[in-house]
Amino acid sequence: MTADITDIASKVGDGERITDEDAARLFAHPNVAELGLLANAVRMRKYPDSTVTFNVGRNINYTNVCWVKCDFCAFYRAPGSDEGYTLSKEQIFAKIDELVAFGGDEPKSNEILMQGGLNPKLRLDYYEDLLSEIRDRYPSVQLHCLSATEIIYIAHLSKLPLDETISRLRAAGLDSIPGAGAEILNDDVRDIIGFRKDRTQEWLEVHRIAHGLGMRTTATMMYGHVESTDHRIEHLRLLRDLQDETGGFTAFISWNFQPDDTDLGADSERWNGMKATGFDHLRTVAVARMYLDNISSFQASWVTQGPRIAQVSLKYGVNDFGSTMLEENVVSAAGTSHTQEMGLDNMERLIRDAGYDPQRRNTAYATVATRPRLEALAAAS
C-alpha cells in the first residue's frame, strides 16, 4: 500500500470509521487498484462468502410528463407535449404479466421499479388506486416505486403532509422506495442542474419518514456533472448520518451523468463536456464503500457503465449486480443503453467469470429459490 494512505488503510482494516478528510485523500489517490483492495476488504468483511446477488425486475415509467424539466434529464416531456404519455392500467398490467411469467410466483420475488415524471394531473388517489390493484393482482411483485421527488409533489398536489402521504401510499401497497432524485445532495448543485427540484433536506425527510414507518429504501448518487469532490463527500456524509439515525437504507447505487440530448449536456458554461470515466466510477464506488460503513449492499451500475465495468466493480466493494431490468427508458433516452447486452444468462456468466456464485434475491435482499423462466422471456419478445 502506498505510504500516503497507510494510515487510512489501517483504519479500514480495523473497521474504524473514516473521516471526510480521509475520503478527500482517497478521491485524490492516483492508484485506483489500491482503493479497490481496501474497498474489497470491507465488502468481504460484510459478505465473506463467494455470492453475488441479483434480482429479477422491470422498470415501468408510467408517465413521462414532468413540469420540473431537470436539465440533466432527456426522458421528460413538458405538460401539453404531443410526445407526453401516461400508461393505462392495462398497459402497466401487461408489462407486469411479462415479468411474472419470467420471474415466477414466489411472494414478493419480482421487483417493479415504477417511476415517472411529476405529472400535474396525477394526484394521490390515482396512485392509491393503481398500487392497490397491482398489490391485489400480483402477490409475487414487490412495489419498489416512486422517488422522493414524486412523493413530495404528490403531497403538494394533494395538500397533505408528507407523513400522511407516505402512510397512505404504504397502505395502498407501496412496499419500498427507490433512491432516485438524490442526484447530489447539495442545494447549490441542485440549483444548477434542476432548480425546480426538491431541496436536499426534503429528499432526506421522505426517506426518514419512510424508515420510521418500517419501510426500506435505497440510497443513490448521480455524479460527474457540475459537482466537486467536496460535494460528493458531503452527499455521502448526509447518507451516512441518516443511516446512523434510522438504519433504513438497504443499498447504495451510484451512476454518472449521461449527457446526450440533455440541456445540461449541451451547455458548455455549466458542464465541461467530459463524461466520467470507468476509473472515476471505480474510484467513486470504492471510496463510498469505505465511507458508507453502515450500508450493507452496493449495486453494480451496469445500466450506465456497461457489463464489463460492472464486473470489475465486484472487486471494488460491490456485492450485488442489481436488476435484470427487462425494460429501461430513462438512461437510454440520454443515449446510453446496455440492456440488450444483459440477459440473465450473461449476468450470471459475468458474475461467475469474476469468481463469484450468482444468487437471486428479492428487494429486501432475502434469497429467492425460484429460477427465472427464460422461455417465458423469449416468448414475450
Task: Describe, in plain words, how this protein is organized in 3D.
- With about 375 residues, the protein is of the alpha/beta class.
- The chain has a single domain (about 5-380), classed as Aldolase class I (TIM Barrel).
- Helix content is about 45%, strand content about 15%.
- It has helices spanning about 5-15, 20-30, 30-45, 90-105, 125-135, 150-160, 160-170, 185-195, 200-210, 230-245, 280-290, 300-315, 330-335, 345-355, 375-380; strands spanning about 50-60, 110-115, 140-145, 175, 215-225, 250-255, 295-300, 320-325, 355-360.
- The strands form 2 sheets. Strands 1, 2, 3, 8 and 9 form a 5-stranded parallel beta sheet that branches.
- Helix 10 links the parallel strand 5 (about 215-225) and strand 6 (about 250-255).
- Helix 6 crosses helix 7 (about 160-170).
- The longest helix is centred in the middle third of the chain and has 18 residues, at about 230-245.
- The chain is globular and about 60 Å long.
- About 45% of the residues are buried.
- Mean pLDDT is about 90; it is low at about 330-335.
